[in-house]
Amino acid sequence: MNRAYVVGVVAALLTSTFIVVLLRRGYLREKFAAFWLLVASALLILSLFPGILRWAAQVAGVEVPANLLFLLAAVLLLLVGVQLSYEVGRLDLRSQRLAEEVALLRAEVDEIQGRTDRDR
Amino acid sequence: MRTLVAIPAFNEARTVADVVREVREYRPDDTILVIDDGSHDATAQQAAAQDARVVHLPFNVGVGAAMRTAFLYAQRKGFDAVVQVDADGQHDPAGIKALVEGLRSASVVVGARGDSLSARGPRRWAMVILARALSRIVGVPLTDVTSGFRAADRRAIALYARDYPTEYLGDTVESLVMASRAGLRVAQVDVEMRPRQGGKASQGPFMSAAYLARAALALVVALSRSRRVGR
Fold first, then answer.
1. Contact B73 A107 (CB under 8 A)
2. Which of A29, A56, B6, B106 is buried deepest, with most CB atoms within 10 A?
3. Chain B residues near any Cβ of chain A (below 8 Å)
4. CA A25 from chain center: how many Å?
């Protein structure tokens, strides 16, 4: 087995371990964890069976198999980036709405408090 | 007509008290609500000292979201109209009357500077192009589409409480497109405006081009959004 593939296997295993640790501590939501575990397993499979990559490169008409890997990685990261932007936008909107709600509730509380203080 | 005068304020401690006092002078029967958009200065205290109602946003969310808070407040408290007045003293409260009267025949009334646009050069062109485009979309001739001095009736309040644009230029430009698409009538009345006390509008050809590009983006986004609002 080529040394590069050993590096691939080790990287895949390390990634998986790291993801599981984060998941156990509750830092990572399951849907993200599942995605990264999927990526790690794909890396593991490609490292163990480099023939798959060579075959895929031939089918896709890519001369150097590694280039196919780079292309796929770039596309994957692009998609992840877009997905994260979307999530951030959604969270931003939600926190805004919560801020508005909190502001209105506080005004309501102040008003009620003022009324009861006057009654006393 | 129960009217809420909404004053979104971010670090306007210097001017907000005067604005509240002046609004009360012209509109003694209206409720004045100052939306403190996470100010770091004494904006909220200054407003409260003038007996305005104050809602405190826990952090800065921008004019759009601050106004959405005001629309929510108006809807829950059953107000018939909301008038937005800037806290920097730029809007002359004498104009509120004309805005509220405009609500008899329209759901959203925009107060436009009577002396047309004060800007010059490229920025002026940008504003003219934007106004023309928006006039065509809304179907009513508008000249001052980025004016924040405006009034909304019950139907507009219901629409805006559910969803009010919070992006740059969204609260002025996109909100008009939204209203028009929801079948609400938009109108414009002439009002007096005073020079801003602080801050300067960005000039220069580059800034104007950026302004126009952002406005165009806001317009395209507004037009491409589905009619069914609310998320």
1. yes
2. B6
3. 35, 53-59, 61, 65, 68-69, 72-73, 76, 166, 231
4. 16
**What are the pLDDT digits (tens) for B192-225?**
888 765 545 556 778 878 888 888 888 888 888 7
B139 Ramachandran zone, left/alpha/beta (phi>0; psi -120 to 50): left
pTM of the model: 0.83
Q: What is the mean pLDDT of residues B91-97?
A: 94
Q: Which of B195, B65, B49 is nearest to A101 (CA)?
A: B65
Residues of A in contact with B164 (CB under 8 A): none
Contact between B168 and B89 (Cβ < 8 Å): no
Q: Parallel, antiparallel, or unpaired for β B53-57 and B186-191?
A: unpaired
| pLDDT digit string, tens, across residues A54-73 | 999 999 999 998 899 899 99
> What SS3 state is found at B145?
coil
Q: Which two tokens stand for residue A94?
A: 């939600």
Instruction: Name the token pair of B123.
Output: 């920025």
Contacts of A91 in chain B (CB under 8 A): none
Largest CA distance in chain A: 86
Q: Minimal Cα distance from B36: which residue of A?
A: A103
User: Given CA atoms A103, B148, B82, B51 in this order, what sign does their dihedral have?
Assistant: positive
Q: What is the pLDDT of residues B45-85, one digit of tens each?
A: 999 999 999 999 999 999 999 999 999 999 999 999 999 99
Calculate Rg over the CA atoms of chain B.
17
